[in-house]
Amino acid sequence: MSNSTSQKKDFFSYLAQTSPAPLSLEIISAKGIWLKDIKGKKYLDLISGISVSNLGHGNPEVIKAIKSQADRHTHIMVYGEYVQSPQVSFAKRICSSLPKSLNSVYFVNSGSEAVEGALKLAKRYTGRTEIVSFSKAYHGSTHGSLSVMGDEVLKQPFRPLLSGIKMLPYNNIEALQKITNRTACVIIEPVQGEAGVVVPTKSFLQSLRKRCNETGALLIFDEIQTGFGRTGKLFAFENFNVIPDILTIGKAMGGGLPLGAFVADKKIMSSLSDNPALGHITTFGGHPLSCAAGLAALNVLLKRKLYVSAAKKEKLFRSLLKHKTIKEIRGTGLMLAVQFENEALCKRIIENCIKNGIIADWFLFRPDAMRIAPPLIITEEEIKKACKIIVQSINQSLS
Fold it and tell me: What backbone torsions phi and psi does residue 123 show, to the nearest 5 degrees?
């Protein structure tokens, strides 16, 4: 039995599976926007590990930071008890890149955990229990995050979930009147990801901010997928001139290592520090290696201003992806959804893309649309190459 065959057998034998038919590509190396499998085949990565690898794979400055920190120490104590330089430096850098009201960072391990912490913070600070979220929202798969998810198919098998959840239609200004003085918080993606990259109107998000101000509800922006340059700004809320009370971040935050956080004003965040003390705690949140990697990644992103070219690259994708089967291209920056007629066709196209050396994917709540979210470092020549292969894959899927 070859090593590859053995590894694949063990993959299905010993690893818990998340679906009946995982892709099961065996990737042995990754550099820039390219992945290479065990047979030496190269793939152009158009999804960045679901918006994680914004700098591409194997960025030398991130790798250097990880190695340097590993020589100093890895885990030494639960988050928040010791003064750890990687955490302090990264938190300060994050806050310096945000509006003044977002000045306190609570590090966790993932985006889903960031949502859990943000929901607890809002309930603790306001003394209220009602939470408002939106249809087709995706905020993670832990119990609290699942409770505010906007899709019943994924939620129903795990009920009962959190009580007091009110679900509103996305991008509907009239529905915002259902936010009241009983509402602890409103959690929303400023651009919906798994709904198939749905961009709201500026007036909707500004009306939402106004309604939260009127009722005293805290506004939580979930920027786990949109953050760190994906939409053409460092954070998506900058596109709408709306500042949240709490910001959740993850995915690209750790420069390829696991990391998440929720960010708020110190006066809000301090409510978690007592009554009771340790009311929210994490062992590995803000892990030194992850924070060192995240700080290096953010420094590269800001120094090279990689997000500035996202709008130009978006236009190039839109101009080159022309085909009678493409019904629509939605999105902003390098967060796009290519809409096809139905799920079956979309999945055939994605299968052919992978055969032809393009890593593509669909969306949880829009399986009839293909995700395009490449590393921000993708060049115009690489975009042209990717689009040529996508069009080729579409034609193969129709024959």
Answer: -65, -40
